[in-house]
UniProtKB/TrEMBL annotation:
Pfam family, one: FA_hydroxylase
Main location: membrane
Cellular component GO terms held in the UniProt record: endomembrane system; membrane
Protein name (record): Sterol desaturase/sphingolipid hydroxylase, fatty acid hydroxylase superfamily
Keywords, comma-separated and alphabetical: Lipid metabolism, Membrane, Oxidoreductase, Transmembrane, Transmembrane helix
Subcellular location: Endomembrane system
Organism name: Arenibacter troitsensis
């Protein structure tokens, strides 16, 4: 019975309905008009959409079960290995750095807008470094390994990526005055929307979302981010507000004539859990081992993926730059 109880708790936890069930048991339905009540109703949306997306994949005979299988294994593995690390990291940083904040915001609509812009800056930094520093790419590559986009990709992360990401985002927000309650509200909204933008073509064929494609970051933008096409490499690092991508020149819209190819450029078996989860670490270890001298070994760790001590670099910046030059010369 303990096993069945644990299984039940895990299913309820995955679906995000535990808080809603607790509120229903009170018999007071007015609680759903409170903040906690609204949150309890929003949490299950993404998991339920994921299940619907998978069912539609079976109906359309395009489920790509390999992607779902590996991402499910990653979800289970991360539940046991890194369940509370990110929460502890956020709590530690808030307690440590809040006394050094430049000023302190309050829970108002204008400070909310300020806080969200600051949060997006922190997210941009973490995400950008996750693509531009080889060691950080080892943490982030698991998320880019799937060769199809669907909501299960939301759960495809190396267990240490969340603490690394939250350390950067929380540090930026706290030092720039975003008070903790406001920060947690922004984190909730951002994580929910950040899951939604992984929605696949089975449920949303055109992810541009009409006029919103010009205003916010849409599933279309994030599909571009997950692409390995030369034009799309290392673009669209933001999550909801694409302001920082436009500021730093990493904004890229989806082109109608370029079919998105998902996945990473390293030759790999995307249906193999070990290769998806640890493959980039293995590749980095091999490069460091064969590199001559301490300097080159260190450079393999901190330089962008594709950097080589031989000078035969294949970084995304060079690949994309070559593509743009060739494409512009033909126009």
């Amino acid at each position: 019975m303990d096993i069945l109880g644990t299984l039940y708790d895990e299913v309820v936890g995955f679906l995000g309905i535990s808080q809603a069930l607790e509120l229903l048991q009170t018999g007071d339905y007015s609680v759903f008009s409170t903040y906690d009540g609204v949150v309890s109703l929003i949490y299950p949306i993404i998991p339920l959409l994921l299940l619907l997306e998978f069912i539609l994949g079976l109906v359309y005979k395009k489920p790509n079960t390999k992607v779902y299988k590996v991402n499910f294994l990653i979800y289970v593995f991360n539940r046991f290995i890194g369940r509370f690390i990110a929460i502890a990291m956020v709590t530690l940083i808030i307690g440590w750095l809040q006394p050094y904040a430049l000023f302190q915001t309050k829970m108002t609509w204008y400070w909310f807008i300020y806080g969200y812009i600051v949060w997006e800056f922190g997210h941009f930094l973490y995400h950008y470094w996750g693509h531009k520093v080889r060691l950080f790419w080892c943490l982030h590559s698991t998320h880019h390994a799937p060769e199809q986009m669907n909501l299960s990709v939301t759960h495809a992360h190396f267990f240490l990526e969340a603490p690394y990401a939250d350390a950067i985002r929380t540090t930026v927000c706290i030092l720039l005055g975003v008070e903790p309650v406001l920060l947690f509200l922004i984190m909730f909204i951002d994580s929910t929307y950040g899951a939604f933008i992984h929605i696949g073509e089975n449920m949303m064929k055109d992810g541009r979302m009409g006029f919103l494609n010009k205003v916010i970051l849409t599933p279309s933008h994030h599909r571009v981010h997950h692409a390995r096409n030369p034009l799309y490499m290392d673009t669209n690092f933001c999550n909801l507000l694409n302001i920082w991508d436009k500021v730093f020149g990493t904004y890229q819209e989806e082109q109608h004539d370029i079919q998105i190819e998902y996945g990473i450029t390293r030759k790999m078996n995307s249906g193999n859990f070990l290769d998806v989860y640890f493959g980039e670490f293995v590749a980095l270890f091999k490069d460091v081992a064969k590199a001559p001298g301490l300097k080159n070994k260190l450079l393999y760790i901190i330089m962008p993926p594709g950097w080589s001590h031989t000078g035969e670099h294949q970084t995304s910046k060079l690949v994309r730059g070559t593509y743009l030059r060739e494409h512009l010369s033909k126009e």
